[in-house]
Amino acid sequence: SKTDTKGRITYCNLPFIEIVGAREQELLGKPHNIVRHPDMPRVIFKLLWDYISRKKEIYAYVKNMSFDGSYYWVFANVTASLDSNGTIVGYYSVRRKPSTKALEAIIPLYNDLLQKEQTGGIEASERYLLNLLEEKGVSYDEFVNTLQRS
Q: Residue 111, SS3?
C-alpha cells in the first residue's frame, strides 16, 4: 500500500484489498489505521513514524484487522517516498508473512507493551521497549530482523 504524508491510503494492491476484505473504494483516502488492531501497542507506531519521518526505513511486526473483525499479522517494511528534491511525498509499505518463531516472541512482548501503555502511557511502553533492547544489547532493527530470520 501507499499513503500520503498524513497516512491516508492512496494505493493498495489486490492482495491487500482481499486480506482486509474491503472494496478499494472503502480504503482509498482513508487513514491507514483503518486496519489497525486494538491489540497493537501505540509505541510501535510512534517508532514507525519516528523512523519514516526521518527518511529511514523500518521493519515492524503489525497485527492488522480485517473488515470482518478477523486479524492477520504482517512483517511490514515501511519507507518514505521522495520526490526529486528529496522531499517526502508519501509512504510505501511492503508486507511479508512473519516467521512463526518471531511471533512467539512478538505476541507476548506486544502484550507487555500494551499493558504498560494502559497503566503508564506510551512513555512507559517506550521505556520498557528501550530497556529490553538495551538488556539484549541490540538495536530495534537488529532485534526485529533477527527474529524474522529465526
A: helix
Query: Cell numbers at residue 51, please?
Result: 523512523
Cβ atoms of 60 and 44 closer than 8 Å: yes
Q: How many helices (H) and strands (E) does the chain have?
A: 5, 5
How many angstroms separate the CA atoms of 96 and 99, rounded? 9
pTM comes to 0.94
67 phi and psi angles, rounded to 5 deg:
-65, -25
pLDDT digit string, tens, across residues 59-103 = 999 999 999 999 999 999 999 999 999 999 999 999 999 999 999
The rounded distance, in Å, linking the Cα atoms of 74 and 9 is 17
Long-range contacts of 34-39 (CB under 8 A, 24+ apart): 34/9, 35/64, 35/65, 35/66, 36/64, 36/65, 37/63, 37/64, 37/65, 37/71, 38/65, 39/63, 39/71, 39/110, 39/111, 39/114
- Which amino acid does the sequence have at 33? N
